[in-house]
Amino acid sequence: MTDSILVINPNSSVAVTRGMDEACAALRSPGGPGIECVTLEEGPPGIETQQHVDSVVGPLARMVSEHEKRYSAFVIACFSDPGLHSVRELTKKPVLGIAECGILTALTLGHRFGVIAILRKSIPRHLRYIAALGVNDRLAAELPIGLGVTELSDTNRTFGRMRDAGEKLRDEHGADVIVMGCAGMASFRKPLQDALGIPVVEPTQAAVSMAIGRVKLGWHAG
Q1: How would you classify the pairing of strands 34-39 and 4-9?
Q2: Of 9, 130, 145, 191, whose Cβ has the fewest other Cβ atoms within 10 Å?
Q3: Are residues 107 and 18 part of one domain?
Q4: Burial class (CB in 10 A: 0-12, 13-18, 19+), 78
Q5: What is the residue range of 13's domain?
Q6: DSSP letters of 123-183?
Q7: How far is residue 9's CA from residue 18's CA, in Å, rounded to a whole number?
């Protein structure tokens, strides 16, 4: 059976899953691992609070348990990395979270990274995670665009606010690389990078890239 990577969108927004799938298109190649993006139907429309994060841990664990034999690696595609460590306890196959991978990728592209969040209330949760990763001294700042996950489909408004936040992170806070802090922003990576002139990391792409490497090299948990 061909190796495949399962990318799980923990919210119930099919539009977000579709955007993730399109973002992964550049990573699909003949002979490479397959990349399948799915929606967690039990999830909320958007993961915007700690309660939302906590509510999807059980369903995510069940989904991975049910599909553990079918896939070679799993990606949890939410910038809060919900259930990451719980799911890693269920399998020795690679399990990657997009926040962890997006941030670690940013550290290889610049000295100080900035994060564009959807909502201001998301920032304390992200900052706790960045501190837990031990990289808060490399964080320039995190700024919100004031839009929930379901509002990101208004492309002109979303991109305008992301550009404004990115410019502030670059010019006022000294960020030399930007991380997009929501999987629902996937389609804006290239135009935002072109507008800002500095690297922009789309975290689902970052996580899937790492998953491909692990599958090809046969790396797994100890």
Answers
A1: parallel
A2: 191
A3: no
A4: buried
A5: 4-97+204-217
A6: HHHHHHHHHHHT-GGGEEEEEE-S--GGGTT-HHHHHHHHHHHHHHHHHTS--SEEEES-G
A7: 10
For residue 1, pLDDT over 90 is answered with: no
- Domains in the chain: how many in total? 2
Whole-prediction pTM: 0.94
How many Cβ atoms sit within 10 Å of the Cβ of residue 136? 12
- Between CA 9 and CA 159 the distance in angstroms is 22
110: CATH: 3.40.50.12500
The SS3 of residue 97 is strand
User: Could you tell me if residue 66 is inside a domain?
Assistant: yes
Pair 10, 56: CB distance under 8 Å: yes
